[in-house]
Amino acid sequence: MLPRSRRDVLKSAACLGAAMTAGRAVPAWPAPPLPKVKFHGRELTRLIIGSNPLYGYMHFNGLYSRFVAEWMTQDRRLEILHRAEKAGINTWQVHYNTDTMQDLRRYRDEGGKMQVLILADFELMKNWKLLPEVARVNPIGVGHHGNRTDERFRKGEMNVVEDFCKAVHDAGVPAGVSTHNPAVVDYVEEHGWNVDYYQTCLYRVTRTADEARRDFGEAPVGEIYFEKDPERMCAMIRRTKKTCFAFKLLAAGRLPDIERAFRFALTNVKPQDPVIVGMCPKYKDEITDNVNLVGRLSA
């Protein structure tokens, strides 16, 4: 007969082997729960599910975006949202347009409880009179879209961004500025704008080719991801007292070491700052993996 200690070890190993699913081991113990942060009277999980992959915006190449957009039917999008909520995520960052608002209505009709952080674009950027209607879905905030912000900053038209934030406040909703450029946060802080939060991309993907050539001597092909960009943005994030919702911490799927990317983001933003991560669980359970990873790294 085997000694009890060795028998127990072998039994545990057998159980672990039986728990192998979809080519990966399921932890033998529950992961720590997602930490939560306070924001304007709300409680948000520090991990927020993003909307880009749900609508085929993959920021990789056009073929991949088209493939994902065709796979992401409305039924699959709603399934992913419900799975995210069941896994413990309580907030969804979503772009405003006709399709996303239809999905939000269906999600809530089906009993979905996640809060929404809205990023203005498309119809909402063109027609601010829609803001009272947007306010009726009770978002935790509405932010000026990052690409549009960076374009205004480049043209010296930041007054338009500020006016949008004032219109959001007039609708009774917290207002934010999304950007990919740390200089935008610096500008808003220096000018003392009345904004409630920033949505901060860890990579300055809106650099023009000319800006890249000026700063680095050459420009890459396609969207621009430089390895030191996260350090530059996180330094700015730590300089402001306002909540920053950090996004693209995985460089739109380009980083092979996912745990390292999560650890960098969680330890280099402020403790009050959530992270937004898009998820496409076609080939693996990214939702469970990300929830477990953030829970463990935050424990």
Describe the structure.
The structure is a single chain. The chain has 299 residues and is an alpha/beta fold. The chain has one domain (39-298): Alpha-Beta Barrel (TIM Barrel), CATH 3.20.20. The chain is built from 13 helices and 12 strands. It has helices at 4-18, 62-71, 74-87, 98-109, 123-126, 131-135, 146-155, 158-170, 182-190, 209-216, 229-239, 258-268, 286-298, and strands at 20-21, 24-25, 36-39, 42-45, 47-49, 91-95, 115-120, 141-144, 175-179, 197-201, 243-247, 275-277. Strand 6 (91-95), helix 4 and strand 7 form a beta-alpha-beta unit. Helix 9 (182-190) runs parallel beside helix 11 (229-239) and helix 12 (258-268) packs across helix 13 (286-298). The longest helix has 15 residues, at 4-18. The two termini are 40 Å apart.
